[in-house]
Write a structure and sequence with these properties.
The radius of gyration is 21 Å and the shape is globular. It is 40% helix and 19% strand. The longest helix has 25 residues. Strand 9 and strand 10 form a beta hairpin. It is built from 16 helices and 14 strands. With 414 residues, it is α/β, with parallel strands linked by helices. The chain binds adenosine-5'-diphosphate. The site of adenosine-5'-diphosphate has 13 residues, from helix 11 and helix 13.
Length: 414
């Protein structure tokens, strides 16, 4: 089956076409036919497309909204211009899988989309006011463009964390606030953490129940997950993706009392303080320069910038602190796994996060760490009691597989 995978953001849309089915999933032989991204939707959009492992191609078009963007890319994919031999017309797209940010307590696994499911996603809008409406627009646009008979599947970023026990998902605030408004920790990056846990099992040749690891997704957004017996038992993001680790522009953990203090002193309303914590904090806020880790590292190398160094130090310190906390919470683990743009590509940041974790049995292999850039591999020494791995994430592959499994009536593993 050729699955169109969609990840819709407010002004961008990432898409892939992956050929998969139950046999290919079993054999791990799924094929990525195409990947692409539409940026600056709402104006003169830039469409970047890459066929297989071929060169990237750039196109431009005026695309006023996500519906126009989807119409454009589907037409392009089905046209002879795309040159994808497996797809000659729209009929060769067999299903669509969507990344949906928030499934609340309602969705604990991927589901075939129906009217009822769409209502459910709508009911979670309070929890993700920026993301869920965009995801819904994508689902509706596909229905309008490809008809009701086109199977669509929702894969939730929160679902992997549905296994969190009460003691890790409840905030220590009056319990009735949870009952009234479902205020609790949900966790995000679940598709990525679940994929990493799956690859980890394959790499080690172990069953799900034996997978005890701390997974660190370090990209623009960053989160850690404590995965015990193959299931998520704690994670650093909370009710929203603002809690936890230091991120590109997000603060991660802060004392909630500073919100009203900032509001008072800066003369701004509370919602603007929240925006400040989401958009102007993290690496950007501390350094005053950029949210981009690679740029910060070169700033430090070239200009020895003090605040850039401080931002990186705080970033690594917070990540290490979470590893320690999760090791304690889980009663130890067998491995730490790095993923996401920073986790996959920066040996320097990985080494700094792991500094001083010898007490926990971690002995990093500098050579292997330096070599594992953008590819999977063990980066700890042979015999290290706590192992460390780099596992590049592949959320789209998991979405494609869940979509195929949902349509073919196969249960989705967590
Ligand atoms: P997103 O969370 O938006 O998917 P990514 O996972 O691609 O983002 O991560 C983006 C982050 O990864 C940026 O901070 C970028 O600077 C960082 N990054 C990418 N390559 C490197 C590298 N070689 N060294 C350090 N950081 C890197």
């Amino acid at each position: 089956m050729n699955i169109l995978v969609l990840n819709a953001g407010s002004s961008s849309l990432k898409f892939q076409i992956i050929a998969t089915d139950l046999e290919r999933i079993r054999q791990d032989t799924d094929v990525r036919l195409l990947r692409g991204e539409v940026d600056r939707i709402g104006g003169e959009a830039v469409i970047t497309i890459q066929k297989g492992d071929g060169p990237k191609q750039k196109l431009t078009a005026t695309l006023r909204d996500i519906s126009a963007a989807l119409d454009y890319i589907i037409r392009w994919i089905a046209s002879p211009d795309s040159g994808i031999s497996e797809i000659n017309s729209v009929a060769d797209i067999h299903a669509v899988g969507h990344r949906v940010v928030h499934g609340g307590e309602l969705f604990t696994e991927s589901v075939l989309i129906s009217e009822e499911v769409m209502k459910g996603i709508e009911n979670c809008i309070d929890l993700a006011p920026l993301h869920n409406p965009t995801n819904l627009r994508g689902i509706r646009a596909i229905r309008d463009l490809l008809g009701h008979q086109m199977p669509q599947v929702a894969v939730f970023d929160t679902a992997f964390h549905h296994s969190l026990p009460e003691h890790s998902y409840l905030y220590a605030i009056p319990y009735h606030l949870y009952l009234r408004y479902r205020i609790r920790r949900y966790g995000f990056h679940g598709i990525s953490h679940r994929y990493v846990a799956y690859r980890y099992r394959l790499l080690r040749g172990i069953d799900r129940e034996k997978a005890n690891l701390v997974s660190l997704h370090l990209g623009n957004g960053c989160s850690a997950a404590a995965i015990r017996g193959g299931i998520s038992t704690d994670t650093s993001m909370g009710m929203t993706p603002l809690e936890g680790l230091v991120m590109g522009t997000r603060s991660g953990d802060v004392d909630p009392a500073i919100l009203s203090l900032i509001a008072l002193k800066e003369g701004i309303p509370l919602n603007e303080v929240e925006t400040l914590l989401n958009k102007q904090s993290g690496l950007l806020g501390i350094s005053g320069l950029t949210n981009d880790m690679r740029a910060l590292l070169s700033e430090i190398r070239e200009h020895d910038d003090r605040r850039a160094s401080l931002a990186v130090e705080i970033f690594c310190y917070r990540a290490r602190k979470y590893i320690g906390a999760y090791l304690a919470a889980m009663g130890g683990a067998d491995a730490i796994v790095f993923t996401g743009g920073i986790g996959e590509n920066s040996p320097e940041i990985r080494a700094r996060i792991c500094e001083g974790l010898e007490w926990a049995g971690l002995s990093l292999d500098d050579g292997k760490n330096n070599e594992a850039v953008g590819r999977e591999g063990l980066i700890s020494r042979e015999g290290s009691r706590l192992a460390a791995y780099v596992i590049p994430t592949d959320e789209e592959l998991l979405i494609a597989r869940d979509t195929a499994r949902c349509i073919l009536g196969e249960p989705n593993p967590s």
